[in-house]
Amino acid sequence: MKSLEENFLNFREQQKTQMEAEAAENARLNKRLAALEQRVALADPAMETVTEGPRKAKPDDSGWVSDLKEEQSGWQEVDPSKATPAQPRHKVASSKEPKPWAELPTPKPQPKAPAKKVQKAKPQPVTPKAAYDYALSLYRAERFVDARKAFDTYLKRFPQTDLAANALYWKGETYYSQKNYPQAIMTFKDVAQKYPKHSKVPAAMLKTGMAYEMSGDVDNAAFYLRALVEDYPKSAPAGLARKRLAALGR
Questions:
Q1: Which of 4, 11, 69, 212 sits between 20 and 30 A of 62, alpha carbons compared?
Q2: CA-CA distance, 212 to 235, in Å (whole number)?
Q3: Between these two residues, 231 and 90, which has the higher pLDDT value?
Q4: Distance (Å) of CA 234 to CA 122, 125, 196, 229, 241
Q5: Average pLDDT, whole number, for the chain?
Q6: Which residues contact 169 (CB under 8 A, 6 or more apart)?
Q7: What's the rounded Cα separation, in Å, for the pair 204 and 217?
Q8: Dihedral sign, CA of 146, 152, 155, 156?
Q9: Which residue has the higher pLDDT, 151 or 51?
Q10: How large is the average pLDDT for residues 70-82?
């Protein structure tokens, strides 16, 4: 809008200047014409001298001539072809400050999380002795649940070997170490029932009596300890059984 107003004012100024120039030119022409008429009159006195006053320039009532006229719908241009071409707009000065909105920020790539190392399951030993030693090493490491699974695996794969009774006994020890005395009692009894002639039977009977004692059943504890002393009097577990009976007053 400001540029349009400036163009309009420039046009008015040019129009005023042009009218003043035309008025001056008319005055000069009128003056020459009057001089010519005077010279003709002197040369031929009979010729009627018609003297006209100097031509007056077209009066300018207000000094401004409007090129707009009022319409019902408002003001509009009468002759657009006479309008002065619009002056080129001045370029808006651009700031040298950084424009963070000019470019979209590029998201920084997120570092990839390091891949977790998946521990591969150790291959199960193939020989009975290696499988038994592996399960026993888990028990000694106090990994009782893993040890029990390893002993179960051994008993399934090698139920007829000499170490099967040992594997069953140490399975009972995993329960005893976890203070699961009922399961321990059942497992120790299985050793004597499944392998009655095995050298591990006296130890299984001793731990059966001790598990009963730890669970509060002194009568059954004394029963299994006396049976151990009577059936295997010279065994090392029988000596421990005598001490436990004395402690219990039986």
A1: 4
A2: 21
A3: 231
A4: 42, 36, 17, 8, 11
A5: 78
A6: 187, 188, 191, 200, 203, 204, 207
A7: 17
A8: negative
A9: 151
A10: 49
Rounded to the nearest 10 degrees, the angle between the axes of helix 218-231 and helix 236-248 is 140
- Tokens describing residue 75: 């003001």
pLDDT digits 0-9 by tens, 216-231: 999 999 999 999 999 9
Those residues with Cβ within 8 angstroms of residue 206's Cβ, 6 or more apart along the chain or in another chain:
224, 225, 228, 237, 240, 241
- pLDDT at residue 77 tops 80: no
Lowest mean pLDDT among 10-24, 35-49, 135-149: 35-49
130 CA to centre of own chain:
50
Tokens 């065994």 belong to: 235
Give the per-residue pLDDT at 27. Answer: 81
CA–CA distance, 240 with 179 (Å, rounded to integer)? 20
State which amino acid sits at residue 229: V
Q: What is the mean pLDDT of residues 119-127?
A: 67
